[in-house]
Design brief:
mainly alpha; elongated
Length: 205
């Protein structure tokens, strides 16, 4: 007997196509330090083409629709919420991403990355500016995982905005410490540390 599409486990083709969709986020080369002035950002290397979905597989929007049907049928389907959260982020559907990550935090309240992703999504949905709720989740991410790179990077950006370059530098250094030196984001963190040093040495206005 064939299982209902809403309750059966995702097929390998379904998962492979969703992973290809999510991979587009990394191929785009977007910085985690949201809101960094363009003049302060290090140059971005040309991104390699994102892998496409397997032949004959449904496209991104069709996959998202299937995931939405799954969580509608089962609101506690953690795997589907996680894939939705990443897919919505890639697609720029920030309000939907916030909803997805809220559900992931609900289902995994002690997951540091879930809190970090929710914090980032809240900032993106707020015009790429972190609000108090976003900061709360980023702080929670660090309480659960002191080496969370995303939380350190985003909180470092907040500290720079508040005129706290020493605090910002510490966040950026902590993020860099927990990242492979060859990772593309490592260079952005080094640049951010230089920006914090420059801000610290500048005369106060």
């Amino acid at each position: 007997m064939t299982a209902s599409p809403n309750t059966s486990r995702p097929s390998r083709r379904f998962l492979a196509t969703l992973l290809a969709l999510v991979a587009a986020a990394f191929a785009a080369g977007g910085a985690l330090i949201t809101g960094m002035p363009a003049t302060a950002q290090p140059p971005q290397a040309p991104a390699a083409p994102a892998p496409g979905p397997p032949a004959g597989a449904p496209d991104g929007p069709a996959l998202v629709l299937q995931l939405e049907q799954r969580v509608k049928a089962n609101p506690d389907d953690l795997d589907s919420w996680q894939m939705l959260g990443r897919a919505y982020t890639v697609m720029g559907r920030q309000d939907d991403a916030v909803k997805a990550w809220r559900n992931i935090v609900r289902l995994k309240p002690d997951d540091a990355m879930a809190h970090a992703e929710l914090g980032r999504s809240l900032g993106n949905a707020n015009g790429r500016k972190l609000n108090a709720e976003a900061e709360k989740h980023l702080d929670k991410a660090l309480a659960l995982d002191p080496g969370n790179v995303m939380a350190h990077a985003l909180l470092g950006r907040v500290a720079l905005d508040r005129g706290q370059p020493a605090v910002a530098k510490k966040h950026f250094e902590d993020a860099l410490e927990h990242l492979d030196t060859s990772h593309p984001f490592a260079q952005q963190l080094r640049q951010a540390i230089q920006i914090a040093d420059s801000a610290a040495s500048s005369p106060s206005k």
